Amino acid sequence: MNRFLTRSGLAALVAVAIALPASQARANMRDTDPPEYKDLMELEAQYGAGPLATPAGSKPGAQPAAIPDVFGPGAVLTVGNVFMKVTNWGLIGNPFTNVSNDPSCQWPGASGIEYMNYVGLAVGAVNPLATDPTAVRRVSYLQEFRPPTLDKEDRMYRSYDGIINGSRFVNDDGDNDPLTGDPLIDEDFLDGRDNDGDGKIDEDYGAIGQMMWSCLIRDDTKEAIAAAASERHVPLGLEVQQSAWAYSIPGYTDFNIIQWDIYNRSGHELDSVFVGVRSDMDCGPIDKGDYWTDDFNLPQYPYGEFWVPTKLDDGRLQSASMHDPSISDYEDKPLCPEYRIRIQGYSTIDDDNDENKTPGMPTVFLVDHSTDPTGVSGPMKVGMRAFRSWTSGTPYQQGGLPTIDQQRFEFMSSEENIDPETGWITLPPGDQKGDYSDFWSIGPWRHWPNNGKIRLTIGIGVALGDYKTSGLQRYPQAYEAAPKDSKYGAVLSTAVQGLLDKFPSLANCYAAQVAYEGKYDNTAWIPVPDYHGREYCIKAPPGQIITMQGCPDLAPRVVNDRDYSCFDMDCDYCTGAYDFSKKRGLFHRTWLAEAPPPSPNSNMSVLYNYTDNPDRKFPPAGDGQVTVAWDNLSETSPDPKSGQFDFRGYKIWKVSNWQRPVGSAGPAEDDWTLLATYRLFDYAPTNGIPCPPESVTAGVCAAGDTLCPLVFVPQSNSYERICLHNGDLFDRQSGDIIHPDPAVLCQNWPDCDTAEGWLNGQSAGPKTSRIKYPIGRYRYVDKEVKNGFLYFYSVTAFDSTGSGDHISELESRRSAVEAEGVTPQSSISAPKMAGKKVWVVPNPYRGSRFIGDRPSTWDLTPNAADPTGTHIDFLGLPAGNWKIKIFTVSGDLVAVINSTDAVNESLRGEATDSQGVRHPGYNRQQDTPWDGQASWNLISRNGQDVVSGIYLFTVEIGGKVEYRDKFVIIR
């Protein structure tokens, strides 16, 4: 589809918006624009964002706190290679490029190369209670999902695997179901609300990945019903718990996962329910106009079933000592040395890689969805129901975009382009390049009860792909030619690697699916299989007894309403693992992977580094230096898989000379420079020994002193005595030691917060506790900086994983967005220049057309949030409040700058301190009491870019002009 805001379209719309009231401007949109485009433009106007925003001086459609995480900087997954925006209403991605420079789906990292416009959710159903014939079959779609309220609680929430109260498959709060007595596990979804009625908020949820964003959305709010659309929105009464996460561990960084848990909150049963995914994948560099118009679709790449070797620690192996000896065919061997996975995805690819600027290709793939193995109320197995792919402008009747609910439901309930036997997509690739979009569905679910849940999990990945030379169009032939087993038709495990090596997107989906499969283990869970292969467990309805049969070769059994009874519905021992020797079922722990320690919280975070934060004790920006401060979160977060404190150290990274490449949301992967690697010393109270007699005699040390070891320090090319104490951080290259600051007290002093885990290498016995400390426990000062320039810093953590010959280190991801940049500021005590008290830098300012030609090398590429990309700075400003007025030589007032003015308001929203009080989240001109520097972006008070000339300025203190001078601008 068309980009919601193309560059040419944006310019035209801005011109229209300036000339006309918002309502007239909307009336001038093209009739050929897709409904989604018109709806989203209406939404911009409603929320006072974008070119159709409510005119200045009139009442906005919503207050800033009510604006959803769509406009402006929002929730972005940044720990892997796929930088992807997540919003809190029916949409993944960032089509609003005019009001936000957040990446939609950039790879690798903040590269400025986009691979997605958006991916959206659609849910269709039959309402059996509807009296209006037009309300019987409806679809809730994209912008028709909104946050439940406009309260500040209904926003995006960030977490990670291992966060307190967020351990998956763990009863964090120890509560049980009052009716059944079963433990309630991960029952309180992370959404800022008390979902289980126990008076606690977010006390037991399941966090996943190294970064996760979660939110709640509904289709029946006032805002959803009133949403501008091509037809009246008729809600179904749906609530969606949306989670999106990413990994930073090797092999898992090129895909992100989105999971929608969809609940029927209508108060009654819904019938013929279908869930759909609408996607618009576009490939190309943002600085190239209409880069989405030269793509090809690959609807049959990748797909297939594959055998995967079972790992030794996976209980589904069901070794000979674990399984029933009466299973004669497996008497002396495991039941499941291999298991099968299913991959179903589709891709989009650029026609010529844009002169090697677009090396990748995006893939959307189905990971899992709810099933009913009986086939009575839902699909029996995971797979797509219908699929179509088209180029922009294709009519619905010819395979194009459904534009109204009737068409959407008709398509979603069809079996279009899906083989009924295999479930694979049958649509061939298009033969003409263009702007391709896709729509697919799963289902149906019949008789979906009130409060019933349907789960859909998908992946969005990017991998290498070249349309002309890689032969990706021939993937179906390569898959069909691969050797397969005779029973299931899955590719043999011995032949899988050959396909993975040849087809990178297949390898990406394969890694994601294997990660999802996880393993079977002894996690306490109800229910679990009561025999080998019995994956489907049920209870009879209250007061009833039913008879049920699983695999046709097995006899029917009676099911009561008190206990779970489990059945083998697919005749497969490997779905449903059981330990016969211990007479207990094993739990299928999905998404199980090693995890590096989470990166610590630092003073670079926008939630910490804002002027009005009363908790900010370590501002990063100083005079000719930047102070990087962080907490010990990484040390107090046990590995979510092993439960061990396996943390080993920190790495400090820096970005200099960043000039904001077009479309970039922050530094790219190659921009980072490693400053230092610090390892934690926690082996003993000290590394020194009492001074031995021979050292006393030799005069090396005195009796009673501690003798520290000699360590070779590469940077000084010499041996130095390094004295370490427990808790110190040591950089082997420089010999530098960071001591924990004893003045920084523990969290919740004096009742210190702690975390429990096993020591590294242990897996049983008593656990140990570690105290949690806030930001400031560790500090690193970088003096290789210049005032007025923008810098980025990232503190990552690494661990020690494995044992014996298989020890490896996993490291968290270095990343930053533009809002986390730091600019050192001249101090009020800085030496004055040539006797002047306040002066301007640079003076004269030379604004050459090309950034590289300007003497002011701190200039950035302009974008929507910063239309000039440049600034001049006033230095030598005094303490206390001040006001700068700038005039032309004829005395016209050009601009006014106050010490309390915002510097980066367009990049930052509100922030909440530790007491729950909300503050403006931006930095002010006078960011600290000793900040003697202020910036001006060369925009006049009338919103115009100033021209060449001589300008005068005054500095007022207490209403009295104390300083005056002039500067020159040359353009």
Describe the structure.
A hairpin with a 6-residue loop joins strand 37 and strand 38. The chain folds into five domains: 1-64, no CATH class; 68-146 and 219-517; 536-589, no CATH class; 626-687 and 724-820, no CATH class; 839-970, Sandwich (Immunoglobulin-like), CATH 2.60.40. The chain starts with 6 loop residues before the first helix and ends with a strand. The strands form 16 sheets. Strands 8, 9, 10, 11, 14, 15, 16, 17 and 20 form a nine-stranded antiparallel beta sheet that branches. Strands 3, 6, 7, 12, 18 and 19 form a six-stranded antiparallel beta sheet that branches. It has a five-stranded antiparallel beta sheet with strand order 38-37-32-31-42, with no helix packed on it. It has 971 residues and is mainly beta. Helix 8 crosses helix 9. The longest helix is centred in the middle third of the chain and has 14 residues, at 504-517. Helices cover 9% and strands 28% of the residues.
Task: Give the structure's gist in a few sentences.
With about 950 residues, the protein is mostly beta strands. The protein has ten helices and 52 strands.
